[in-house]
């Protein structure tokens, strides 16, 4: 079978590489190619620099913007630029909802089935970021409706996300929808996490983009009067502001930048627990990976993480003693209900104190 994968609009293999997630994102396709003899072609928005990835991954064919066209024009001309690739494809698949219109135009022209994946909810993400009645949220809603009409099948990373999509777009039948959890590379997170040696200071790890969505400013405020050290892995537009805030609030923090998965694992191995204080999420891979690693987790009780009991069963199905982990860290997440204004900070401070006690208890049980 030949599958053509359309990357998220404007993204490239270079985008994944610079974020340190290239191997992680390609892992599932390599596994499928090996197990089911699938020939994969990737439609990338990258330019001539994408050639290096063709050399690194000869088993994958890469179509890229070799003419260096503006992204919008490149997307519109896609059906004409790569006719042979599209004619030979058995299935056209998207990596996310955004950019599915380009895949849909190719599907129409060459009569190929279109498989649309949503790792996060496009409309929910835009609504949380800009407001439910904003022009961007309205555009996302219309975009979803148009794409769902074109798609032959839609896949979502969580059951709740699929149910909400069907509720928003009543014309989409359940027979057209499936749930496929995000993929985690198990071998990357072995050997499993062990609680570090005794320390008076609680060490908390975070992995992700430094954006408003991740709620990191409130995290720093919550840690300001606690004996806590932060290990922040990633980058983003708020990095300089966060560096200034941690200095101003006297919160010990190490900014590790973007790391490949193996380096992320080793930084987290030195932490006591993992935190994801986001305002909204889809099905965050960083959280799934921390769960696979076996770390204690602090997470906000938001839409993308409400299915944690289901996620725990999914992730720990490959672990030896899930019942022990469930007993020690119920649901693998202490949930925080979002409140208004300063209540968020007070709640997070209380949560961190509870987490410190639980980590201490874990260390005591260990001896």
Outline the secondary-structure elements.
Blueprint: E1 2-6, H1 13-18, H2 22-36, E2 39-43, H3 51-56, E3 61-63, H4 71-81, H5 83-88, E4 91-94, H6 100-110, E5 114-118, H7 122-130, H8 135-150, E6 153-156, H9 159-168, E7 177-179, E8 202-207, H10 216-223, E9 228-233, H11 239-248, E10 253-257, H12 261-269, E11 273-276, H13 285-293, E12 297-300, H14 308-316, H15 322-328, E13 334-336, H16 343-366
Parallel strand pairs: 1-2, 1-4, 2-3, 4-5, 5-6, 6-7, 8-9, 8-11, 9-10, 11-12, 12-13
Number of domains: 2
The gyration radius over C-alpha positions equals 22 Å
Which series of helices and strands comes N to C? EHHEHEHHEHEHHEHEEHEHEHEHEHHEH
As a percent range, the share of strand residues is 15-25%
> Which structural class is indicated by helix and strand composition?
alpha/beta
Q: Approximately how much helix is present in the residues?
A: 40-55%
Mean pLDDT: 83
Number of strands: 13
Here the CATH topology of the largest domain equals Rossmann fold
Ranges where pLDDT stays below 50 over 5 or more residues in a row are: 304-346
Reading side by side through the largest sheet, how are the strands ordered?
3-2-1-4-5-6-7
Describe the model.
It is a single chain. The protein has helices spanning 13-18, 22-36, 51-56, 71-81, 83-88, 100-110, 122-130, 135-150, 159-168, 216-223, 239-248, 261-269, 285-293, 308-316, 322-328, 343-366; strands at 2-6, 39-43, 61-63, 91-94, 114-118, 153-156, 177-179, 202-207, 228-233, 253-257, 273-276, 297-300, 334-336. By secondary structure, it is an alpha/beta fold. The protein folds into two domains: 2-179, Glycogen Phosphorylase B (Rossmann fold), CATH 3.40.50; 188-366, 3-Layer(aba) Sandwich (Rossmann fold). The chain has a seven-stranded parallel β-sheet. A six-stranded parallel β-sheet has the order 10-9-8-11-12-13, with helices on both faces. Strand 2, helix 3 (51-56) and strand 3 (61-63) form a beta-alpha-beta unit. The longest helix has 24 residues, at 343-366.
């Amino acid at each position: 079978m030949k599958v053509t994968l359309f990357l998220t609009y404007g993204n490239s293999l270079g985008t994944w590489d610079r974020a340190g997630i290239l191997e992680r994102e390609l892992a599932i396709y390599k596994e499928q190619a090996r197990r089911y003899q699938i020939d994969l072609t990737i439609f990338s928005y990258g330019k001539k620099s994408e050639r290096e990835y063709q050399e690194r991954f000869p088993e994958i064919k890469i179509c890229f913007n070799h003419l260096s066209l503006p992204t919008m024009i490149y997307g519109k001309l896609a059906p004409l630029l790569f006719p042979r690739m599209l004619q030979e494809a058995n299935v056209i698949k998207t990596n996310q909802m955004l950019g599915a219109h380009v895949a849909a135009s190719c599907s129409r022209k060459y009569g190929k089935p279109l498989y649309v994946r949503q790792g996060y909810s496009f409309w929910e993400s835009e609504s949380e970021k800009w407001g439910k009645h904003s022009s961007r949220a309205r555009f996302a809603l219309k975009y979803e409706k148009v794409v769902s009409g074109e798609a032959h099948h839609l896949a979502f990373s969580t059951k709740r996300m699929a149910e909400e999509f069907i509720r928003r777009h009543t014309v989409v039948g359940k027979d057209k929808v499936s749930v496929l959890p995000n993929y985690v590379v198990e071998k990357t997170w072995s050997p499993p996490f062990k609680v570090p040696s005794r320390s008076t200071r609680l060490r908390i790890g975070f992995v992700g983009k430094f954006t408003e969505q991740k709620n990191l400013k409130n995290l720093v405020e919550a840690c300001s009067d606690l004996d806590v050290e932060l290990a922040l892995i990633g980058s983003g537009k708020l990095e300089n502001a966060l560096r200034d805030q941690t200095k101003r609030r006297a919160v010990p923090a190490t900014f590790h930048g973007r790391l490949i998965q193996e380096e992320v694992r080793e930084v987290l191995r030195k932490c006591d627990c993992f935190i994801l204080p986001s305002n909204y999420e889809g099905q965050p891979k960083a959280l799934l990976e921390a769960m696979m690693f076996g770390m204690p987790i602090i997470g906000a009780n938001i839409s993308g993480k409400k299915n944690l009991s289901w996620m725990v069963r999914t992730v720990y199905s490959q672990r030896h003693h899930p019942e022990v982990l469930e007993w020690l860290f119920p649901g693998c997440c202490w949930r925080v209900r979002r409140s208004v204004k300063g209540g968020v900070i007070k709640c997070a401070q209380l949560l961190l104190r509870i987490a410190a006690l639980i980590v201490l208890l874990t260390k005591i049980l260990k001896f």
